[in-house]
Write a structure and sequence with these properties.
single chain, mainly alpha, 5 helices, 0% strand
Length: 101
C-alpha cells in the first residue's frame, strides 16, 4: 500500500497523514484533552517557553525560522487540547514582590 504524500502546510491533513489509523488518532486527541483538563498550567508554560505571546526578534532568518517553529508546535498542542490561549495567558500573570497592582 502506497502511503500518501505528507502535506506539512495543512495541519489537519498532516495529522491524519502521520496517524492514518482513525482509532489511534482519536486516542491521541482524547489523551491530549484529558491531560489538559488538569494540567493547564503546563500548557501555559509550553506557550511561554515557545515564545507564543512574544514577537520574534531574531535577525538571522534561520534562527527566526526555529523560533517560529517552536511557536507553531506550542500553538498546535494547545489547539489539539482544545484550550484557549487567552485563558492560558491569564495563568501566566502572577504578582511579583515589589510590583504594583
Amino acid at each position: 500500500m502506497k502511503r500518501p504524500q505528507i502535506q506539512f502546510e495543512n495541519w489537519p491533513r498532516w495529522f491524519a497523514t502521520m496517524w492514518p489509523n482513525a482509532q489511534r488518532r482519536w486516542l491521541i486527541v482524547t489523551s491530549y484533552r484529558q491531560f489538559a483538563e488538569t494540567h493547564k498550567s503546563m500548557f501555559a508554560d509550553i506557550m511561554l517557553r515557545a515564545g507564543a505571546w512574544s514577537p520574534i526578534r531574531e535577525s538571522d532568518p534561520f534562527l527566526a525560522g526555529v523560533a517560529e517553529g517552536r511557536r507553531q508546535i506550542a500553538i498546535e498542542l494547545v489547539k489539539l487540547a482544545k484550550l484557549d490561549p487567552a485563558e492560558l495567558f491569564e495563568l501566566t500573570k502572577v504578582e511579583r514582590k515589589g510590583e504594583r497592582p
